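Contributing new records

If you add data, match the layout below exactly. Sequence lines come first and carry their own label; structure lines follow with theirs. Keep one chain per record. Anything else will be rejected by the validation script.
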Amino acid sequence: MDHEYIVDINEDNFDSCVLQEEQLVLLDFWAPWCGPCRMISPLIHRMAEELGGAMVVGKINVDEQVELAARFGVMSIPTLVLIKDGHVIDTMIGAGSPMDILNMINAALRDAAQADNPPSRIMNADG
């Protein structure tokens, strides 16, 4: 990937990039042929850039990582899964609106801040 906070996730790096990550992790289950996945991808990339070290985006291509998709019960894409400290804290199935995605991430960032693990910033609809 072209950004330090966006990582291609596979079976080999899942533990180190997701389970052992200290920051919030947004797993983006997608496929290259999926129109809705391509539709939300620019928003996901922008969030990763603007949130810097407060969140890491893990891109999981379901065609290549069938076992990871099965582990998370992914039956439809796009599916977004928020993970903190190795635990799933929220899930969104389908191409939610940009506001829905922002609300999901901001809620997780607020929860992290309340747990004395403050993020660098919380995003608004304008970035």
